[in-house]
Design a protein that fits this description.
The complex is a heterodimer of chains A (379) and B (460). Chain A has 379 residues and is α/β, with parallel strands linked by helices. Chain A contains 15 helices and eight strands. The longest helix of chain A has 27 residues, at 158-184. The structure holds iron/sulfur cluster (2 copies).
Chain lengths: 379, 460
């Protein structure tokens, strides 16, 4: 099991080496920015989708030519890594535009990459549910499909997409299973390990990832039940993958029993439904995405997202919730007051910690998490 | 985006400008009256297709215009702070924060002494201090003198007296921040939300798939509005509103085009004030007529060589972005000192959309600031820079508006490369005065003036 953990750890830490390895196999790779791009199409084209969620090691420098300071590091570092050559191995990049930061970034990336690689644009609809919205999603995905076909130099058939959908759905099953098992065995699946396993999925072909993850899951499942002496939490936010930050969880015996994190469960909690038309199936998956800070909720007069998160805390047996607020992420910030309201109403303790990927000093986070763990232990 | 009532400069107010002010005043007054009569009042984003609501005779107010007015009345900070106290992060757009605080019942009021119920006067200004109150708490008070005095203490200007919403109309063409902002309002008041989603566009041409998707949403919105208003869609009213909106747009563009004259017959800063009409009343005949009246006055100015600019025009610039409403005098001062007239604002082309028929209307609503690709954005701006003969560009890096500021650096490079004119950027915020640094602004204006001067000498 340790070998497996080490493998995931290696991959999660060295996306550049992963990229080179795939390139050495003669494969093409496509960068995929957040959120909800249909990377199944990349897979169906026989190429490797490569998640781009910023970096914990880089410093914003060249991106300053394009961005003012008040943009999240995820977006700024994506631009940075495209400019500084880190992602030169990519054969293209997909830029979704679901938040106000990603809108202009899609333009900056297209402009700055014009000599380097094709930039594939994606605008998701918010009124995504009825046939009208689904048709729009399909039309956007069809553009992507065409561009990917050009890059791959071959057509993507419907059967290719159907096969990719199978692989992705199977992978979701293992990812959700892993999240659950990690919550049941925090003694073995530490917060640091949990994150590495989930993060590695963004840099691997999903069939390979799924096989490795299944092997790991089987092993974890065979472990004796864990009598956890510490506390249990649900984490929420866009991304939290910094090993130093995660180590604090392990230091204070704070187990992560479930998550509402965009980089993790928000991505794989929704399966791709059956549909005779595989493009429509992908569109329906997007329509089914729910309880999300980035997506319109037609029942907005209710507080559904917050209720969903509160229920997740209850169902997972957590003692509280830790919200990692990415600095400058207005969609997440906008939904915080009502999340807070619901958590408070249900008596669920939570803390909100501001983070970004250029953070190098975690002293404050350490103090806050320690205090929070103490509160939970007493409660 | 959007705007506030008037730009405070000691100058004569012409009949055209008066008429424009009256139009906006009427929008608010009619909404208050509708509320009194128990009719539903809506809150709408600035570039929601107002033609749809007009077809149902619905009264609508505009939170962006309101927030700009509140900021210009110097209550931006107290309202932003109120939103922050409700757990909305100070990173969120200032308009949204002000609006959310207002929606939650927060109001800026003249400070009352709790004992005497007299105003507490600030000896420096000789006016009452400002305090934050909660209208819900006041409404819950028993009838009587205290309640009356507390209600009377709420600032009287129209933006602080806007009626609470019974429904919300959200169109996210200008930004996606709108989506969750309006969802929050719908949640606070448990009211219906009509959502027109306009996805971001990567090409200058609006693709047919966008048109089909948005038209489909119009049909749904009409169904929702029928329920809200209890009325049927009135084709005639809709067509009238479309005709008015087109006429207003044409008249607005005509007014904007007077800035092509050199020297200009007006201060371009005035356009920011008149934007309020385009936002809150473009579907009204009175707005079209008021702009037409203003155009005749400008025509007269051209003939007689007059201008509303209170100083001789030495340089002409494009002002990029929304002004910092709480800091208008500070914004204006160094421009005046250096003889700089703003002769181009991107709102001119961005709001001057003329269309013919439903499909063209859909395409028009796809073209908002922040919903278009960089090429379209550059084209709009370079078009007015050329036509209005600007010598330089002053770029507001607006802390509130991420979609707007996010590609300005690249745009600046293009302006300089394509037009050979200097650009200068400064940091500010349209509504939160805490994000504006006057000293930096002055230095940047100074730098721009020097560069424009050098450019001019080089050309000579
Ligand atoms: S972190 Fe927030 S602001 Fe940044 S890209 Fe993600 S959703 Fe947008
Ligand atoms: S984010 Fe920008 S476009 Fe949106 S409301 Fe704020 S200022 Fe207007």
């Amino acid at each position: 099991m340790n070998t497996l953990f080490e493998k995931f750890d290696q991959i999660s830490k060295s996306p550049a080496a992963q990229l080179s390895a795939y390139k050495a196999q003669g494969k093409k790779a496509i960068g995929v920015l957040p959120y909800y791009a249909p990377e199944e199409l990349v897979y169906a084209a026989g190429m490797v989708p490569f998640g781009m969620w910023g970096s914990n090691k880089k410093t914003i420098s060249r991106a300053k030519e394009y961005c003012a300071t008040f943009y999240c590091t995820i977006a700024q570092l994506a631009v940075e890594m495209l400019l500084d050559g880190t992602m030169d191995g990519l054969d293209g990049v997909i830029t979704p535009t679901i938040c106000d930061t990603l809108r202009p970034m899609s333009q900056n990336i297209r402009v700055s990459m014009s000599d380097k690689m094709p930039v594939i644009f994606l605008a998701h609809p918010q009124n995504r549910f009825d046939l009208n919205g689904l048709t729009f999603t399909v039309s956007q995905y069809t553009n992507i499909r065409k561009k990917l076909e050009e890059i791959a130099g071959k057509p993507i058939t419907d059967d290719d997409i159907r096969a990719a959908i199978k692989v992705y759905n199977a992978c979701h099953v293992q990812q959700r299973r892993f999240v659950k098992l990690a919550g049941e065995h925090p003694d073995v699946v530490t917060a640091v390990r949990r994150s590495a396993v989930l993060k590695a999925g963004w840099f691997m072909l999903k069939d390979e990832y799924c096989a490795m993850l299944k092997e790991l899951n089987d092993k974890i499942e065979a472990l004796p039940a864990c009598d956890w002496p510490g506390t249990k939490v649900v984490v929420s936010g866009i991304i939290f993958d910094n090993p130093i930050l995660l180590q604090i969880f392990d230091d204070y015996k704070i187990a992560i029993v479930a998550d509402d994190v965009a980089h993790e469960s928000r991505t794989f909690k929704t399966d791709i439904p059956d549909d005779a038309d595989p493009m429509m199936a992908l569109a329906k998956q997007f329509a089914n995405r729910d309880h999300d800070v980035l997506l319109y909720d037609p029942q907005s007069s209710k507080n559904r997202r917050a209720e969903f998160v509160a229920q997740l805390v209850k169902d997972s047996g957590a003692d509280g919730l830790v919200l990692f607020m990415q600095q400058f992420c207005d969609p997440e910030e906008m939904e915080y007051p009502y999340l807070k309201k619901e958590l408070d109403a249900q008596g669920i303790p939570h803390i909100k910690l501001g983070i970004d990927q250029q953070m190098r000093d975690f002293g404050q986070a350490r103090t806050a998490l320690q205090a929070f763990a103490d509160v939970l232990a007493v409660g | 985006m959007c705007l506030r009532k008037e730009y405070i400069m000691a100058k004569e107010v012409s009949p055209g400008v008066k008429a424009l002010r009256q139009v906006v005043e009427d929008v608010y007054a009619e909404a208050r009256e509708a509320k009194k009569q128990g009719k539903p009042v809506g809150w709408s984003s600035s570039k929601f297709p107002c033609e749809l609501a007009a077809a149902f005779d619905l009264n609508v107010c505009y939170p962006e215009n309101q927030a700009a007015g509140i900021a210009a009345n110097r209550d931006g900070e107290i309202m932003c702070q109120a939103a922050e106290d409700l757990a909305f992060d100070n990173d969120i757009c200032g308009y949204a924060r002000i609006s959310l605080a207002y929606a939650a019942g927060k109001r800026a009021a003249k400070k009352l002494d709790p004992e005497t119920l007299e105003y507490v006067i600030n000896p420096e200004t000789e006016k009452p201090y400002t305090e934050l109150v909660d209208i819900n708490e006041i409404w819950a008070m028993p009838e009587g003198e205290e309640k009356e005095k507390r209600l009377a203490a709420i600032k009287p200007y129209r933006q602080m007296q806007m009626p609470m919403p019974d429904f919300v109309l959200c169109c996210n063409n200008i930004c996606n921040c709108m989506t969750k902002w309006y969802e929050n309002i719908a949640r606070m008041h448990d009211i219906p939300l009509v959502m027109i989603d306009i996805p971001y566009n990567n090409t200058v041409e609006v693709d047919d798939t966008y048109v089909a998707y948005i038209r489909g949403q119009f049909d749904k919105a009409i169904e929702q509005l029928e329920k809200i208003s209890g009325k049927k869609f009135d084709e005639k009213k809709f067509e009238d509103a479309c005709a008015n909106a087109n006429r207003t747009a044409k008249a607005w563009l005509k007014v904007c085009d007077y800035l092509q004259y050199k020297p200009a017959p007006m201060s371009g800063f005035d356009l920011f004030n008149h934007m309020a009409d385009v936002v809150t009343a473009r579907g009204r005949l009175a707005a079209a007529e008021a702009f037409e009246l203003l155009a005749t006055e400008l025509e007269e100015n051209v003939k007689t060589g007059k201008s509303t600019l209170p100083f001789p025009e030495q340089y002409r610039v494009m002002f990029e972005g929304i002004p910092c409403w709480p800091k208008l005098p500070a914004l204006f001062r160094p421009l005046k000192k250096n003889g700089v007239n703003v002769t181009a604002v991107v709102y001119a082309p961005a709001f001057g959309f003329v269309y013919n028929g439903m499909d063209e209307m859909v395409r028009a609503y796809c073209k908002a600031p922040n919903s278009v690709c960089i090429e379209q954005g550059v084209d709009w701006r370079e078009g007015i820079c050329r036509d209005n003969k600007v010598d330089g560009v002053l770029v507001h890096y607006n802390r509130s508006c991420k979609p707007w500021s996010g590609y300005m650096a690249e745009m600046q490079r293009r302006f300089t490369a394509d037009l050979g004119i200097p650009c200068a950027g400064f940091d500010g915020d349209q509504a939160d005065p805490r994000n504006f640094n006057e000293a930096q602004y002055e230095t940047r204006v100074q730098g721009l003036v020097e560069a424009m001067e050098a450019n001019r000498l080089a050309k000579e």
